């Protein structure tokens, strides 16, 4: 069993903790981000469907469901489950990465754009995958992931059972926040702590002294990242 530091915002961190527990690991939760909901108005025109690449988009989509048309497209099973729970009846599910969604959207052969309920800070994989000649996207930013700085007491409580065996880093912002945490309190975390990064782009946001301990997920999604914990 590995003790794994999880720095996602609190709601997502709890889901990750459950996924780690199913793999026999223990999660140490120390959120370095918090989600702030935005409240833009829904578009005036009709859309071919809605797209969510994060569970954090679902509250806004649910609040405006009556004004939206077409199926809902989810990046993966976890986001799909949140959409179903919010009342969306027709949910199509990608393979776990935003890059898997353009093909699903293109298969609809829609004449209207798809509404992409996005985060203010995000990777542009979906937009790049659709491109100029692919499915049209109407991007509406509905949430923001803001930095969160824990107190020393909170960090000590999260690590009270001893230092972690590994840390999960799922975004560039998390990588930078983790590096700042280590610099602020170097006595709390091992200098050679293995850092399991969702992508090479995430690892690249670490300072060089930390990057040498980064391991990048082979599958490019969260299940692949979690499956790699504890492997040599």
Molecular structure report:
- The protein has 232 residues and is an alpha/beta fold.
- The chain has two domains: 3-32 and 148-227, Rossmann fold, CATH 3.40.50.10090; 37-144, Rossmann fold.
- It contains ten helices and eleven strands.
- The protein has helices at 10-22, 58-63, 77-85, 101-106, 125-130, 152-158, 172-184, 200-204, 208-211, 222-227; strands spanning 3-6, 26-29, 33-37, 49-52, 72-74, 91-93, 114-119, 137-147, 166-169, 195-197, 214-216.
- The strands form two sheets. Strands 3-8-7-4-5-6 form a six-stranded mixed sheet. The chain has a five-stranded parallel sheet with strand order 2-1-9-10-11, sandwiched between helices.
- The longest helix is centred in the first third of the chain and has 13 residues, at 10-22.
- It comes from Aureimonas pseudogalii.
- Residues 15-206 form the Tetrapyrrole biosynthesis uroporphyrinogen III synthase domain.
Features:
alpha/beta, Rossmann fold, six-stranded mixed sheet, lyase, 4pyrrol_synth_uPrphyn_synth
Strand order of the largest sheet: 3-8-7-4-5-6
Unreliable spans are none
* % residues in beta strands: 15-25%
Look up the CATH topology of the largest domain. Rossmann fold
Give the total of domains. 2
Total DSSP helices: 10
What is the structural class?
Answer: alpha/beta
Mean pLDDT: 94
- The run of helices and strands is EHEEEHEHEHEHEHEHEHHEH
The major beta sheet can be summarized as:
6 strands, mixed
Q: Report the strand count.
A: 11
In brief, what are we looking at here?
This protein is of the alpha/beta class. The protein folds into 2 domains: 110 residues, 3-Layer(aba) Sandwich (Rossmann fold); 108 residues, Rossmann fold (3-Layer(aba) Sandwich), CATH 3.40.50.10090. It contains 10 helices and 11 strands.
